[in-house]
Write a structure and sequence with these properties.
Blueprint lengths: L5 E2 L3 E4 L19 E3 L37 E4 L10 E2 L9 E2 L5 E2 L3 E6 L7 E5 L5 E3 L7 E2 L15 H6 L6 E4 L2 E7 L9 E3 L7 E2 L3 H4 L8 E7 L2 E9 L5 E3 L4 E4 L4 E3 L6 E3 L5 E4 L1 E5 L7 E4 L11 E4 L5 E4 L6 E4 L13 E2 L21 E2 L5 E5 L2 E5 L5 E5 L15 E3 L3 E5 L4 E5 H5 L11 E4 L4 E2 L4 E5 L4 E5 L5 E5 L2
Parallel strand pairs: 5-7
Antiparallel strand pairs: 1-37, 2-36, 3-4, 4-40, 6-7, 8-9, 9-10, 10-11, 12-13, 13-14, 14-15, 16-17, 17-23, 18-21, 19-20, 19-22, 23-24, 25-26, 26-27, 27-28, 29-30, 30-31, 31-32, 33-34, 34-35, 38-39, 39-40
Length: about 475
């Protein structure tokens, strides 16, 4: 996990050929946790590339919020009140401990990934850092701590799977679209493995076998779980560590100096203790919903990384974003080296775009698949778009947010009519029609306008949309969980 940095986060509305505008810093949440969304402030400079502001005061006191029929255009802090957000403190920058220490502070990274139930209007599951999984059935007006775990109720002190989830971070979560009672989650920096619930988050079991967990340097330390959109039983899991032992053909390996190369596509290479290689890049794969698992290759080994992750476009076409200078990688063979060809190839995101502002290797830890099947990705102050995953158009240069990805999280969501993008300095949005019609490869002016948004920590690293209730949600670590009704 990267250190939490406080910064101002604004919401931006992209219009075709619009100038970037708006305030560089956002107001704090009011005492009732609501912030009306103002119009653009034309006095703001077009480039949002200054360092993040110093720590703003974080007003975590907020009153009750309405159900799903809340006011349009008002940001509301809907962090579960029982999480005692006013007493949160970062475990990186203070002496507070996980749980509650004698000073009354709660050591946590706050809110993490979340799920929207498409079959139950207003139902959201919210993951946290060492504070459990919470469920609302009314768009955040009321919450319950759901992972009471395997017939056990003492989730804070017991040893059931529910309490194991309370001891870790749910930085990646999935819901089975064919059965919304089936959930998957992690307990990052807690218990290793992948946890599955078949009853809507109450009871959980760890489903990654020891035969897979033992192949990783830190057993079962999961980075991201993804699902094949063409098969709900086909899952991939990347690791917050490297695999050891004999590498698969075509796997990327790291030597003991952290230099990475691709091994022979026909010969296996031993890695780990006593060899010249520390490990190789791997993914765990299941095609039966987690009953059986095997290993395949990833695009790049986890070598002192922070925030990489994979995206599944279909059964065999996947992307692996390194969230840094190692770039974006693509396979069309499910990570397998076929007929002597590499299993993965590096994607050229920027260098074909005239006037591109980014180096070849800048890439976030995810690729977002939009409703029209097109793809979005990017890097530090750049957003790119593709219709085939091979040829990419840079939608913005320095007039874009510094996109980030925490444990492979996606900072992009498509509502059907609007694409929202969030980053460490700001939130952005663009009409889909504008993006589809945008042909320039040399953007010289901002396509974005900024709107008022709450002050948030590290950006809205997880952003998703409830199309039924027209609710945009962002999870923002130490500054909590927010919603905005868009219409």
């Amino acid at each position: 996990m990267r250190p939490i940095v406080y910064g101002a986060l604004g919401l931006l509305l992209v219009a075709c050929a619009a100038k970037s505008s708006g305030s560089d810093s956002a107001p704090d949440a009011s005492s009732n946790g609501s912030i009306p969304v103002d119009g653009p402030d034309a006095s703001s400079p077009p480039v949002d590339s200054s360092p993040l502001d110093s720590s703003p005061p974080m007003d975590s006191s907020f009153g009750p919020v309405a159900t799903c029929s809340s006011t349009v255009g008002t940001w509301q802090n809907i962090t579960p009140p029982d999480l005692d957000m006013a007493n949160w403190c970062s475990v990186d920058f203070s002496t507070c401990n996980v749980g509650t220490n004698p000073s009354g502070k709660v050591g946590t990274y706050g809110t993490t990934d979340f799920l929207i139930d498409p079959t139950s209007s207003g139902t959201v599951y919210l993951g946290t850092s060492q504070l459990g999984i919470w469920k609302t059935a009314d768009c955040g007006a009321n919450w319950v701590h759901i992972n009471t775990g395997n017939n056990g109720t003492d989730v804070n002190g017991g040893n059931v799977a529910g309490s194991l989830l309370d001891g870790g971070r749910q930085w990646t979560m999935l819901m089975d679209p064919m059965n919304s009672q089936v959930l998957y989650a992690t307990a990052g920096y807690g218990a290793g493995g992948i946890f599955r619930s078949t009853d809507g988050g109450v009871n959980w079991s760890q489903i990654l076998p020891s035969s897979i967990m033992s192949r990783t340097q830190y057993p079962g330390f999961i980075e991201k779980i993804t699902m094949d959109p063409t098969n709900h039983l086909h899952l991939l899991a990347s690791f917050h560590t490297i695999c050891t032992g004999t590498a698969l053909p075509g796997a990327p390996i790291a030597d003991n100096g952290s230099n990475v190369s691709v091994v022979s596509t026909t010969n296996n290479t031993p890695t780990g203790s006593g060899t010249s290689y520390q490990g190789w890049g791997c993914l765990a794969e299941t095609t039966d919903g987690g009953t059986t698992w095997s290993l395949t290759t990833s695009g790049y080994p986890w070598v002192n990384s922070d925030g990489p992750g994979q995206t599944m476009v279909n059964a065999t076409t996947w992307f692996y974003g390194t969230n840094g200078s190692q770039g974006l990688w693509r396979t069309t063979t499910g990570g397998m080296a076929v007929n002597g060809a590499p299993a993965w190839t590096r994607v050229n995101l920027y260098t074909d775009a005239a006037g591109a502002t980014q180096p070849f290797d800048s890439a976030i830890g995810s690729v977002y698949v939009a409703q029209d099947g097109s793809l979005y990705s990017g890097g530090n102050y750049a957003i790119v778009h593709s219709t085939d995953g091979i040829n990419w158009t840079q939608l913005s240069g320095q007039y874009a947010p510094a996109l980030g990805s925490q444990n492979g999280s996606s900072p992009i969501v498509d509502t059907g009519g609007t694409v929202y993008i969030t980053g460490s300095g700001s939130n952005w949005s663009a009409p889909v029609s504008t993006i589809q019609g945008y042909k320039s490869t040399a953007p010289t002016s901002g396509l974005f306008t900024k709107m008022t948004s709450p002050a948030q920590a590290a950006g809205g690293l997880w952003i998703k949309y409830d199309a039924v209730n027209h609710m945009l949600y962002t999870s923002n670590n130490l500054t909590g969980f927010w919603r905005l009704k868009t219409q």
